[in-house]
Amino acid sequence: AQSVAQPEDQVNVAEGNPLTVKCTYSVSGNPYLFWYVQYPNRGLQFLLKYITGDNLVKGSYGFEAEFNKSQTSFHLKKPSALVSDSALYFCAVRVNTNAGKSTFGDGTTLTVKP
Amino acid sequence: NAGVTQTPKFQVLKTGQSMTLQCAQDMNHNSMYWYRQDPGMGLRLIYYSASEGTTDKGEVPNGYNVSRLNKREFSLRLESAAPSQTSVYFCASSEATPNTEAFFGQGTRLTVV
pLDDT by residue (tens digit) across B29-44? Predict the structure, then answer.
């Protein structure tokens, strides 16, 4: 069975500081990893994904994520946080088996304070 | 480009009433999904459809039924609503290949009283 863990329910950072939102996963086989963002009263929006190749992937709004196979992690990062980055962030994993279904973490609420 | 459209956006039901949540996508995706989102529990898969004409149970299917009407539309039905089904429901679609991202509707906030 595949699973995703987001160990922090909440992350608080000051505007201008770097931010990290953590994600670890467990799968059989090679994972495809995704980050999504959800703003209040909206659906999830895709941010970035890791398929293969370079372990550092870049996505929308200045976000990036680093795939670490040995630590089975896919942490989301941004060098300089904005107040507008405040939202709920979800990590997700898909594999070639299991009908390609996504498994989502429970989400991490990011709050960026001015 | 509308993407994934869900209706209605809000609904209040009395216990025992039935209703159907509608979802349509215009991206020609094969796969469609219904999730529910509850505080602190992330997204839980209710049902999915890997392609037109097929549907399968997800993690929490009890109390729900689905219909993949055609490639565009995937509806979720509550036959006899219960307070435990109070939640926010999201429809999503994606290509069948697992290295592709999902696209989500804006959600339906359902309250069962």
Answer: 999 999 999 987 889 9
Measured between CA atoms, the residue of chain A closest to residue B98 is: A100
Would you state the pLDDT for residue A102?
A: 87
Cβ atoms of A34 and A91 closer than 8 Å: yes
Q: What is the rounded end-to-end Cα distance, in angstroms, of chain A?
A: 41
- Please report the residues numbered 27 through 66 in chain A whose beta carbons come closer than 8 angstroms to any beta carbon of chain B: 32, 34, 36, 41-46, 49, 51
| Residues whose CB is less than 8 angstroms from the CB of residue A54 and which lie 6 or more positions away in sequence, other chains included | none
Q: Which residues contact B112 (CB under 8 A, 6 or more apart)?
A: B12, B13, B14, B15, B81, B82, B83, B84, B85, B86
For the purposes of burial, counting CB atoms within 10 Å of the CB of B52, is it exposed (0-12), middle (13-18) or buried (19 or more)?
middle
Q: How close is the nearest chain B Cα to the Cα of A39, in Å?
A: 10
Q: How many CA atoms lie within 13 A of A39 on its CB side?
A: 6
DSSP-H helix ranges across A2-92: none
- Partners of A33 in the beta sheet? A50, A93
